[in-house]
Amino acid sequence: MSTERTLVLVKPDGVARGLTGAILARIEAKGYTLTGLKLVDADRAMLEQHYEEHVGKPFYEPLVEFMLSGPIVAATVEGQGVIAGFRSLAGATDPTTAAPGTIRGDFGRDWGLKVQQNLVHGSDSPESAERELGIWFG
Ligand code: DAT
Ligand code: MG
């Protein structure tokens, strides 16, 4: 397993709920290294690039609107196998079904919330990570 880097976002719901520290603590506790960290007010152009694979899906527009709804914490995270490893820490996309012990499973709420309010984003492949790091940290 090689040293990788990935993009982690604490989405607007995670920042608004004061969960940034708890989420970053799990990343650090796992032994990953934070090599970049900033608070970002994303604009639509960035989000359209970030979520280009989802253009045209029914959840695309609500997802972009949600990501525009408040500040986001963007982090560059490095470690052995961190791309899959962070997605494992994050848990399944839908917080309702995400396993206990994961970020989405432990902090996700399902009372009337949408799937996009799932606290975090993590890149899903080395190619996505480089592309997304360019958008958020380029
Ligand atoms: P992930 O964030 O786990 O990589 P994804 O890339 O498939 O998931 O989707 C991007 C985001 O879009 C996801 O974090 C939440 C939202 N989303 C995905 N599937 C959805 C659905 N069926 N309904 C509503 N929102 C959805
Ligand atoms: Mg994804």
Structural notes for this entry:
There is one protein chain. With 138 residues, the chain is α+β, with helices and mostly antiparallel strands. It has a single domain (3-137), classed as Nucleoside diphosphate kinase-like domain (Alpha-Beta Plaits). Helices cover 41% and strands 20% of the residues. It is built from seven helices and four strands. It has helices spanning 12-16, 20-29, 44-50, 60-67, 82-90, 103-107, 126-137; strands at residues 3-10, 33-40, 72-80, 120-122. A four-stranded antiparallel sheet has the order 2-3-1-4, sandwiched between helices. The longest helix has 12 residues, at 126-137. The two termini are 26 Å apart. Bound molecules: 2'-deoxyadenosine-5'-diphosphate and magnesium ion. 2'-deoxyadenosine-5'-diphosphate binds at residues 54, 59, 63, 93, 114-116, 118, 121, 124.
Order of helices and strands: EHHEHHEHHEH
Give the names of the bound compounds. Answer: 2'-deoxyadenosine-5'-diphosphate, magnesium ion
Shape: globular
Helical segment tally? 7
Stretches where pLDDT falls below 50 for ≥5 residues? none
How far apart, in Å, are the first and last alpha carbons? Answer: 26 Å
CATH class category label? Alpha Beta
As laid out across the biggest beta sheet, the strand order is 2-3-1-4
The tally of beta strands, per DSSP, is 4
Mean pLDDT: 96
CATH topology: Alpha-Beta Plaits
GO molecular function: kinase activity
Subcellular location: Cytoplasm
Keywords: ATP-binding, Cytoplasm, Kinase, Magnesium, Metal-binding, Nucleotide metabolism, Nucleotide-binding, Phosphoprotein, Transferase
Catalytic activity: a ribonucleoside 5'-diphosphate + ATP = a ribonucleoside 5'-triphosphate + ADP; a 2'-deoxyribonucleoside 5'-diphosphate + ATP = a 2'-deoxyribonucleoside 5'-triphosphate + ADP
